[in-house]
UniProtKB/TrEMBL annotation:
<protein>
    <recommendedName>
        <fullName>histidine kinase</fullName>
        <ecNumber>2.7.13.3</ecNumber>
    </recommendedName>
</protein>
<keyword id="KW-1133">Transmembrane helix</keyword>
<keyword id="KW-0067">ATP-binding</keyword>
<keyword id="KW-0472">Membrane</keyword>
<dbReference type="InterPro" id="IPR003661">
    <property type="entry name" value="HisK_dim/P_dom"/>
</dbReference>
<dbReference type="InterPro" id="IPR036890">
    <property type="entry name" value="HATPase_C_sf"/>
</dbReference>
<keyword id="KW-0418">Kinase</keyword>
<keyword id="KW-0808">Transferase</keyword>
<dbReference type="GO" id="GO:0005524">
    <property type="term" value="F:ATP binding"/>
</dbReference>
<dbReference type="GO" id="GO:0016036">
    <property type="term" value="P:cellular response to phosphate starvation"/>
</dbReference>
<dbReference type="GO" id="GO:0004721">
    <property type="term" value="F:phosphoprotein phosphatase activity"/>
</dbReference>
<dbReference type="GO" id="GO:0000155">
    <property type="term" value="F:phosphorelay sensor kinase activity"/>
</dbReference>
<feature type="transmembrane region" description="Helical">
    <location>
        <begin position="12"/>
        <end position="29"/>
    </location>
</feature>
<dbReference type="GO" id="GO:0005886">
    <property type="term" value="C:plasma membrane"/>
</dbReference>
<dbReference type="InterPro" id="IPR005467">
    <property type="entry name" value="His_kinase_dom"/>
</dbReference>
<feature type="transmembrane region" description="Helical">
    <location>
        <begin position="35"/>
        <end position="57"/>
    </location>
</feature>
<dbReference type="InterPro" id="IPR050351">
    <property type="entry name" value="BphY/WalK/GraS-like"/>
</dbReference>
């Protein structure tokens, strides 16, 4: 702040020294003016000017130092009271901009909330014709047509499901209910949803659930498993997807392993980024880059760690590491 004050008052300081230099110059060339007296006057005035600058520094920078150290600009009650006209102008403009920013923020929040509610309502409405479409597809006798239509129906279903959870993810803390879940029931429900797609691609499941129960939220854990299983099926051909659960040091782990195309080393650090698909398979238009991103967000809220190991053209293993039961004490109170 001292440097800023000197830069701000540099013209005054230069003017002071120029005037005194001019006085010394006049005394030097005019012998009738005693130089010692002028030096004494310059010395005294310099001390007085220095004291004056120190006083003005503390007086003038108090308001701006408080403004600079302010952490919450949306709380106008913490602003320092202005004492000088220019400070009052600054504070008045800040208050006007603050009020306008608050109004704009409220309007934006209302607009976003309205769009979210409209989109959620549309998703729920579109589920009715989708359910009817699925019943019609089930009645088809042509197996090839039935399999193709079921695959496309699943794609629409999963995209709507992702969109629905994407809008809910920001309020996940208000949408959680922690309870003991039966893993077999949860996992086989998700596998059944993928049944037609798996039959089309000749993919099976090898399930070994040594840990049968876990403490978690049913809806969001189902969503996370859905994303992992969908990716495993999507990027595999004529192979088995292995699902294993076990307990180690009081923690439950779930592994989902496929023998698909794998993930390249250069893509590994970015697979959980929003919108990221792949650098090696960039022409794949089916990928949205949202599944793993949303799964990671949901897992973080549930204190679940998602680990991944992969080798290109060999397969990928995702591991869900659940927190210990004691870590859910705070979450159960939500």
């Amino acid at each position: 702040m001292i440097k800023l004050f000197i830069r701000e008052r540099l013209s005054w300081i230069l003017f002071f020294f120029i005037i005194h230099f001019f006085m010394l110059f006049i005394a030097y060339i005019d012998e009738s003016i005693p130089l010692s007296s002028i030096l004494y006057i310059v010395f005294l005035s310099s001390i007085i000017f220095l004291i004056f600058c120190v006083f003005r520094y503390h007086k003038e920078t108090k308001f701006y130092q408080k403004l600079k150290d302010e952490e919450d600009f949306f709380d106008s009650s913490t602003f320092s009271h202005p004492l000088r006209p220019f400070e009052k102008i600054v504070q008045r403009n800040l208050m006007q901009q603050l009020e306008q920013a608050k109004k704009d923020g409220v309007q934006t929040q209302l607009h976003v909330t309205q769009e979210k509610d409209e989109l959620l309502a549309w998703i729920h409405e579109i589920k009715t014709p989708l359910t009817a479409m699925h019943l019609i597809i089930e009645r088809l006798e042509n197996r090839e047509v039935k399999a193709n239509l079921t695959f496309e129906w699943l794609r629409i279903h999963f995209l709507l499901d992702q969109q629905l959870h994407q809008k809910r993810i920001f309020f996940i803390e208000n949408d959680m209910y922690i309870e003991h879940l039966d893993l077999e029931s949860l996992i086989f429900t998700e596998i059944k949803t993928l049944q037609a797609w798996c039959m089309q691609k000749n993919i099976g499941f090898d399930v070994d659930l040594q840990a049968e129960r876990v403490l978690c939220d049913a809806k969001w854990l189902s969503f996370i498993m859905r994303q992992l299983l969908t990716n495993a099926v999507k990027y595999s051909e004529e192979s088995d997807v292995m699902i294993r659960s076990y307990e180690h040091h009081g923690q439950v782990y779930i592994e989902v392993k496929d023998n698909g195309r794998g993930i390249s080393p250069q893509d590994m650090p970015r697979i959980f980024e929003k919108g990221f698909t792949s650098t090696t398979q960039h022409e794949d238009s089916r990928a949205t880059g949202m599944g793993l991103y949303l799964a990671q967000k949901a897992a973080h809220a549930l204190s679940i760690h998602i680990g991944v190991q992969s080798a290109l053209n060999e397969g990928t293993t995702f591991t869900l590491a659940f927190p210990k039961s004691n870590d859910f004490v705070d979450m159960k109170s939500m």
